[in-house]
């Protein structure tokens, strides 16, 4: 019993013993969900990162202690699945003036949503705009169902995002960065390297130049978002991607953008594309 | 009572010793009182109870704890440094397959987690482990 | 947060007579400790699940007295012995008087 829960403990020692960006991860640790679905937590960096100096991309999972890693390995002990259970109910519930539910249009969530999370944010040709998964869910609610939109980073939204994400777990993140989204992606890249706030920190300062190093008693990750929405132990709740962006920027002592803003949408597209090749992990567990 | 390094520095400096000691001792007294209530003041052995905790918890909100004491009737778990030290008491019934339980607990900071098993023969066993609770980097 | 607690329970569907099996339970609950303060600086009153029990065919497996130091969304793992086919009943007792239950059947072959 003891061995199973703490088997990643040696991995933790490996992480702590090393410092410096390149050597921060435990190369031996492997995430296998429910003893059946292997996850890619380490991959070659996508081509567009050629000039970043990063050759290998790591899931945030790789930076955690064995205890936290174990919480994600079994859906039963992953607290995020309490929210997934709620979303399974919501999927079938009629809401709004059109008398529709998610299931009325999309049918079985396991079939219709497989692969969806892996390609978001993505361009919506008909609307001529970039849509995050949250924006797409709310578009369905307001336009198809005649229902009130979910709060962008509220618990109903994160639960629905988690349910949809579960159907893509293990599939590689594969966000398109060219064609109609090229300019928005470029805008997101600029934001990633822009210093914000009184502390004058860019995303890159922490997550590109210092991943693996300590920030207080914690290891900086590469800031990958393949595990979102993520159950954050600190908040005891599922946390939405752009909610985490807001937290990061707040920590630089800056005025932040709003969740669902064009700026954060662009940043989400860019950050998601830095994870192209890692497995979709959401809902992950992080401290 | 035990004095840690910080207490010693304060003592040496002759600073507000009186202000510091009562806090430390009352927390220890609270833990001692809970243990005395559970054991009735009986002696506690050191063998037969396995307490498993992580050495380092990345967040004190959710720290996995396991207790395993073959032949126990019940097991008390305490977080000695929490404002309310009592965490849980597991009582095993006739259909228990092992005197084992695992849960997740809150720790207010780095501290000793203490478990005391009451064995079926009326004796008591104590185990203790320190858990270091780290402070997260980002608003943690 | 949801206004009702939702339990999740994992029990094997079948076992051999006398087998010792592993059971896991998780339930959604804030476990408000009574130590936190709200935006106005006032203490948020304690509101926790204070007891959890598991019984098999009317006989107790485990009975847990729970304090506010148990984490949000309480999780338990423990072992039971199953001499015959039957039903596990799980019960959580809330400070506010609510009682949440779940049950799982197991077939002994």
From TrEMBL, chain A:
GO cellular component annotations of the record: cytochrome complex; periplasmic space
Matching SUPFAM superfamilies: Cytochrome c
Entry annotated with the keyword Transcription: no
Enzyme Commission code: 2.8.5.2
Entry note: cofactor: Binds 2 heme groups per subunit.
Signal peptide: 1-24
Cofactor (UniProt): heme c; heme
Keywords assigned: Electron transport, Heme, Iron, Metal-binding, Oxidoreductase, Periplasm, Signal, Transferase, Transport
Positions annotated as active site in the UniProt record: 248
One example GO MF annotation: protein heterodimerization activity
Gene Ontology biological process terms, A to Z: sulfur oxidation
Record carries keyword Transmembrane helix: no
Pfam families assigned to the protein according to its UniProt record, in alphabetical order: SoxA-TsdA_cyt-c
Annotated residues for binding of heme c 1: 102, 105-106, 140
Reactions this protein catalyses: S-sulfanyl-L-cysteinyl-[SoxY protein] + thiosulfate + 2 Fe(III)-[cytochrome c] = S-(2-sulfodisulfanyl)-L-cysteinyl-[SoxY protein] + 2 Fe(II)-[cytochrome c] + 2 H(+); L-cysteinyl-[SoxY protein] + thiosulfate + 2 Fe(III)-[cytochrome c] = S-sulfosulfanyl-L-cysteinyl-[SoxY protein] + 2 Fe(II)-[cytochrome c] + 2 H(+)
Record note on quaternary structure: Heterodimer of SoxA and SoxX.
Similarity section: Belongs to the SoxA family.
Listed name of the protein: SoxAX cytochrome complex subunit A
UniProtKB/TrEMBL annotation, chain B:
Top-rank taxon: Bacteria
UniProt KW Glycosyltransferase keyword: no
Any single Pfam family the record assigns to this protein: SoxY
Keyword field contains Signal: yes
TM region(s), chain numbering: none
Keywords: Signal
All copies of domain Ig-like SoxY, residue ranges: 37-138
InterPro entries, per database record: SoxY, SoxY_sf, Sulphur_oxidation_SoxY, TAT_signal
Extent of the signal sequence: 1-29
NCBIfam families cross-referenced by the UniProt entry: SoxY_true_GGCGG
Name of the protein: Sulfur oxidation protein SoxY
Species per Swiss-Prot/TrEMBL record: Flavimaricola marinus
Upper classification of the organism: Bacteria, Pseudomonadati, Pseudomonadota, Alphaproteobacteria, Rhodobacterales
From TrEMBL, chain C:
Domain of life, source organism: Bacteria
InterPro entries tied to this protein: Ig-like_fold, Ig_E-set, SoxZ, SoxZ_dom
Record domain Sulphur oxidation protein SoxZ: where: 10-103
Protein known as: Sulfur oxidation protein SoxZ
